[in-house]
Design goal:
With 103 residues, this protein is an alpha+beta fold. The chain has a domain of 65 residues. It has a 3-stranded antiparallel beta sheet, covered by helices on one side. The chain is elongated and about 60 Å long.
Length: 103
C-alpha cells in the first residue's frame, strides 16, 4: 500500500542531514544516482533537510546519473517559520455569484 499524499514520511533522513551539515555555505556537491534511486526524491529530501538547517539549495542542470547543487544561506522570511508568507484571497459567497449570473 502506498502512502497517501501528505502522509508522514518513513524515510530516514540521517544520511542527508549528515551530508548537509558537512557542506559549507557557498560550496556545493554532487550526488550520484544509483539504480533504484529516484532523482526527484533525492532532491526533495536534500531540500527538506537544508530548510531544517535554515539553508537553501540551488540545483544545477546535469546528466541523468548525478545531481549537482550549491548550498546557500536561506533568506529571512517575514512570518518567522521559514516559509514565505501567503496571503489568501477570500472567495465571494456562492449565492452572490449565482445572483450575478441570474441578472
Amino acid at each position: 500500500m502506498r502512502p497517501t499524499r501528505g502522509a508522514a514520511s518513513t524515510v530516514d533522513l540521517t544520511e542527508y542531514r549528515e551530508f548537509i551539515s558537512t557542506t559549507p555555505v557557498g560550496s556545493g556537491g554532487e550526488i550520484s544516482i544509483e539504480e533504484g534511486d529516484n532523482r526527484r526524491a533525492i532532491k526533495r529530501r536534500l531540500t527538506k533537510v537544508a530548510h531544517e538547517a535554515n539553508l537553501d539549495i540551488k540545483w544545477r542542470r546535469t546528466t541523468n546519473d548525478k545531481v549537482l547543487f550549491e548550498v546557500e544561506q536561506r533568506a529571512p522570511s517575514t512570518n518567522g517559520n521559514g516559509a514565505e508568507p501567503h496571503v489568501r484571497v477570500p472567495r465571494r459567497p456562492r449565492d452572490e455569484v449565482l445572483e450575478e449570473v441570474a441578472v
